[in-house]
From TrEMBL:
Residues 1-19 form the signal peptide. It comes from the Bacteria. This is Outer membrane protein beta-barrel domain-containing protein. Residues 28-213 form the Outer membrane protein beta-barrel domain. Keywords: Signal.
């Protein structure tokens, strides 16, 4: 008789045990939602690089590429946390294929020439910059504490400091290589915008100052600035 009463008691209370366990699990899930979340992100961008404000007869050829990577810290400024400031640190390399030759004369002074393929054949002529960058952003998004997929528009400025530069020519004049060229601006900065959904985003950069600081070609100052368009990927 006692055994029957024991089994009856266990059978009657068994559903209550599961119900209580479910409530505990559900409560713990609710408590894990972070209402103070931030969108701290690693980023990786691939861009097609263009030159603006080119001197007469200077043109680009081939594919000029840029690679950018780094980390951005997020600082939300409203209760909903869909508006924030972003401050980051990153590295980038940028190449520009064109007909603007950087060379040196007999005394070692830099010279700048515009190449004409009807006079000089060449298979490569480019300059490359390597920079450490500080992106500063105003960020708007449709994110929530529960969703990692959302629409975003990030605008701001990107400040770059030149770590290293080089140029390379290969053609009728032989192979000409230069590095640590003094005429490049140490600081280069511009406006940026990225927009998209989830991981895939379009990226734009418009340089506000010149790539060079004291170069001239055909008695014209070289005030070329960088324009970049491509894709940027944000990874949490």
């Amino acid at each position: 008789m006692k055994n029957n009463l024991f089994y009856l008691l266990v059978f009657a209370t068994w559903p209550l045990c599961f119900a209580q366990e479910g409530e505990i699990v559900q409560d713990s899930l609710v408590q894990e939602v972070d209402t103070k979340y931030r969108e701290d992100q690693f980023y990786l961008a691939v861009t097609y690089n263009l030159l603006g404000n080119k001197p007469d007869q200077v043109s680009q050829s081939g594919f000029s590429s840029g690679f950018h990577l780094g980390f951005i810290r997020d600082f939300p400024v409203n209760k909903r946390r869909n508006i924030a400031f972003g401050v980051g640190l990153g590295l980038s390399s940028n190449s520009f294929n064109q007909n603007f030759l950087i060379t040196k004369d007999e005394t070692g002074n830099l010279e700048y020439l515009v190449l004409d393929k009807s006079d000089i054949n060449y298979s490569k002529n480019k300059f490359t910059t390597y920079m450490v960058e500080v992106p500063l952003q105003l960020r708007w998004r449709t994110s929530t504490a529960e969703s990692y997929k959302f629409w975003r528009i990030y605008t701001g400025v990107n400040i770059g400091y030149l770590l290293y530069n080089s140029s390379k020519f290969r053609g009728d004049l032989g192979t000409i290589k230069n590095s640590k060229i003094d005429s490049f601006n140490d600081f280069q900065y511009g406006l940026t915008m990225s927009a998209g959904y989830n991981t895939w985003n379009i990226y734009f950069y418009y340089g506000l100052n010149s790539i060079f600081n004291n170069a001239t070609v055909n008695n014209q100052p070289v005030d070329m600035n960088a324009l970049k368009v491509g894709l940027i990927f944000y990874i949490l």
